[in-house]
Write a structure and sequence with these properties.
There is one protein chain. The chain is α/β, with parallel strands linked by helices. Helices cover about 35% and strands about 25% of the residues. It has 2 domains: about 5-225, P-loop containing nucleotide triphosphate hydrolases (Rossmann fold), CATH 3.40.50.300; about 225-305, 2-Layer Sandwich (Alpha-Beta Plaits), CATH 3.30.70. The protein has helices at about 45-50, 75-80, 95-105, 110-120, 135-150, 165-180, 195-200, 220-225, 270-280, 295-305; strands at about 5-15, 20-30, 35, 60-65, 65-70, 80-85, 155-160, 185-190, 205-210, 210-215, 230-235, 250, 260-265, 285-295. A 6-stranded mixed sheet has the order 6-7-8-3-9-10, sandwiched between helices. The longest helix is centred in the middle third of the chain and has 16 residues, at about 165-180.
Length: about 300
């Protein structure tokens, strides 16, 4: 299947010599949710800005829906919606007029029924006549999403969509993103919230210093790179590890009540059975045993730190 967005050898160097992107290659499939994770200055916004026609690339190409973003810029821009980080809205216009203007800007014929449904999906219908200056920050963020969707794009870019909003509104937006995907919209979001990627993304891309370190299915990424830990709670505290346990790489908690064993779940032999037997033979009584899985956040931090 042909990807809806295809990025080839994309690089960007600014006039001051700063290289924001370094030879990025990425295919995005129709109908998926892709989360781009990376620290500030990693290149996420630059990448989105190039695809949306706001910034010119130094080298490379981008194809959207089979059309080159330079040669066929009118077509590709009409296929794309962008929700920027900043709350860039006029103060004195109304919610309804803002969406109507955005729709007309792309040459779409008026469709009040569509805009009504869109505002209701965004929980903004009762604010349709309100001036933007009187809306809360969370409401303004919803208006930005409405603006980006008013012309019915097939690809939606969300640049830090839930930055500065409360937890309840963030979850509402996650639900909205899922509904958009179900309607056939392809969604690419950048985020600082690891739980956001873990909650709604199909694939995760990690970018740092302008390089795309990896892109993979969320669950496959956590499976391949995620380690697991076996935590053994002891009945009685110990001050040092018995010699019989030195062949295992164990961490003893500061209070001496807990042993932690980190292992690779993909290996045929994890060593857990032998470890538990050795603990018993060392005359240590086990109070409880449980496992802990590496989170996406821990994988992200590890990857970024290794590429510094």
């Amino acid at each position: 299947m042909q990807p809806i967005v295809s990025i080839s050898n994309l690089s960007k160097t600014y006039s001051n010599g700063f290289q924001a992107l370094k030879n990025v290659n990425l295919d995005i499939q129709s109908g998926e949710i892709l989360a781009l994770l990376g620290p500030n200055g990693a290149g996420k916004t630059t990448l989105i800005s190039i695809i949306c026609g706001i910034v010119n690339a130094s080298t490379g190409s981008v194809i959207v829906g089979g059309h080159d973003i330079i040669a066929d810029y009118r077509i590709t821009r009409s296929m794309i919606g962008l929700v920027p980080q900043e709350l860039t809205l006029g103060a004195f216009d109304t919610v309804w007029n803002t969406l109507c203007f955005s729709r007309g800007l792309f040459g779409k014929i008026p469709d009040p029924a569509f805009l009504e449904k869109l505002l209701k999906d965004l929980s903004l219908w009762d604010k349709k006549k309100s001036m933007l200056m009187f809306l809360s920050g969370g409401m303004k963020r919803r208006v930005l999403i409405g603006k980006a969707l008013a012309h019915e794009p097939v690809v939606l870019f969300l640049d830090e969509p839930t930055a500065g909003v409360d937890v309840e509104l963030r979850k509402d937006m996650w639900a909205l993103v899922q509904r958009l995907r179900e309607s056939g919209v392809t969604i690419i979001l950048t985020t600082h919230y690891i739980e956001e990627a873990e909650a709604i993304a199909d694939r995760v891309g990690i970018i740092n210093h302008g390089e795309l370190l990896l892109v993979d299915d969320k669950h496959a990424l956590m499976h391949k790179l995620g380690k697991r830990q076996l935590i053994v709670e002891l009945e009685k505290k110990i001050s040092d590890l018995p010699k019989a346990l030195t062949e295992w790489t164990l961490d003893l908690s500061s209070d001496g009540s807990r042993l932690t064993y980190t292992y690779d779940p993909l290996k045929i032999k994890t060593g857990i059975d032998g470890l538990l037997q050795a603990i018993r033979e060392a005359d240590l009584l086990i109070k409880d045993v449980h496992t802990k899985k590496t989170s996406l956040e821990e994988i992200f931090v590890s990857l970024v730190n290794t590429k510094k």
